[in-house]
Design goal:
Blueprint: H1 2-31, H2 35-64, H3 73-110
Helix pairs in contact: 1-2, 1-3, 2-3
Amino acid sequence: MVEGLEMICFQIISNVGAARSSYIEAIQKAKTGDFDGAAQCMEAGQKQFLAGHEAHFELIQKEAAGEPVGGSLILVHAEDQLMSAESFKIIAEEMIANYRRIVELEKKLAD
């Protein structure tokens, strides 16, 4: 199971790392007023995050079925990356909403 565990952990790390990068890119696009681009990045990030989450859920299901998964530093790292990506998603959603409000207020002031 160790080889399988490592492979699943790397799937989690890879997918959620890509998701986190997409969320950061979404914030950068929103900052420049590219809200369509930000939405595309958020959508891409969500797909990547779900792939990582599904790999994580696979481990939970195995353990719930009585198959020992074991613990390792790489599993802890994978779970840390999963939670970090989820946090970045929440922050990105909030920042995009704030940038949208700023743009709308700037338009009103310009009128």
